[in-house]
Design brief:
This protein is of the alpha+beta class and about 55 residues long. The protein has one helix and three strands; from the N terminus they run βαββ. Helix content is about 35%, strand content about 30%.
């Protein structure tokens, strides 16, 4: 099994746009490839963290 971990610092005001794009990409990969999906989290440090399986 392969698990990818990601971390981002976003420009203020871009958070909602990023969340929508992340969701769209996740759905595309889940529907078109053998992929279990991903989870996106926002840390207390205002960074976004995600894991993909």
């Amino acid at each position: 099994m392969f698990i990818a971990l990601y971390r981002w610092r976003l420009k203020p005001g871009c958070e909602k746009q990023f969340e929508k794009a992340w969701s769209a990409i996740t759905l595309y990969y889940r529907d078109n490839f053998e992929w279990s999906g991903s989870r996106l989290h926002r840390g207390s440090d205002d960074l976004f963290y995600a894991n993909a399986i």
